[in-house]
Amino acid sequence: MASTQGFKPLPQSNVPPTPSHQASSAQRAPQNLRTPSNRKTIYDRNLNRTRTAELSRASFAYLFSEMVSYAQKRVTGIQDLERRLNEQGYPLGLRLLPLILYREPVRTSVRPNRILPVLQFVHGPLWRHLFGRTADAIEHSSSAINEYMISDNEPLVNQYISVPKEMNQLNCAAYVAGVIEGVCDGCGLKAGVSAHNGGTEMWPGKTIFLIRFDEGVVEREGLLEGKK
């Protein structure tokens, strides 16, 4: 279980989502693809067409439970299961990064390449895209310069998962940790991300995402800070 002691809060992203520019028309699909009666395929759709659409929770619960069941096959323990869930979320993070940046206004659609902007991107636009709200907190460790935490008091991915008593240390939000890791790597900031149970009396399902950036990332950050 991760402890919040020794961590200090960081400024959070509170910029409300705004409409972005319309996408240019996509190229037509190759001739050998089957097309519906209206002669349009998914490639003809505007990328902003479903930016505010929401997936039903029943559908999400079923799909995610199937993903957990698939990852649970032939695992050797809790850590192995969380590693598999992390690996499933990683490619999603890599793909969500350019999509979300495309949908952002021009003034904020620059790919972040510093630690704090990346954390604010995860806390704000990424969380809103996935869960319809921002994360609850960003904190920086006072003892380890390369460690940061993003907290979610009620992670959606854990609300429909029943964990047996013998696996009470399991946190299926490891999938979201993989998404965060993919976003960080996509921004050129190599990091390892893990999900930990941080439940309190008020928030028993609270999850803490511990982000450890590589030493090279921290060294570069220090050099950039020194140039100011």
Q: What sequence of helices (H) and strands (E) makes up the elements?
A: EHHHEEHEEH
Mean pLDDT: 83
Query: Total number of β-strand segments?
Result: 5
DSSP helical segment count = 5
Structural class: alpha+beta
What's the structural blueprint in terms of helices and strands?
Elements: E1 7-9, H1 57-72, H2 78-103, H3 115-131, E2 137-141, E3 147-152, H4 174-186, E4 191-197, E5 207-213, H5 215-226
Helix pairs in contact: 2-4
Walk me through what this model shows.
This protein has helices at 57-72, 78-103, 115-131, 174-186, 215-226, and strands at 7-9, 137-141, 147-152, 191-197, 207-213. It is an alpha+beta fold and 228 residues long. A 5-stranded antiparallel β-sheet has the order 1-2-3-5-4. Helix 2 packs across helix 4 (174-186). It is globular, with a radius of gyration of 19 Å.
List keywords for this structure.
alpha+beta; 5 helices; 228 residues; five-stranded antiparallel sheet
In short:
By secondary structure, this protein is an alpha+beta fold. It has helices spanning 57-72, 78-103, 115-131, 174-186, 215-226; strands spanning 7-9, 137-141, 147-152, 191-197, 207-213.
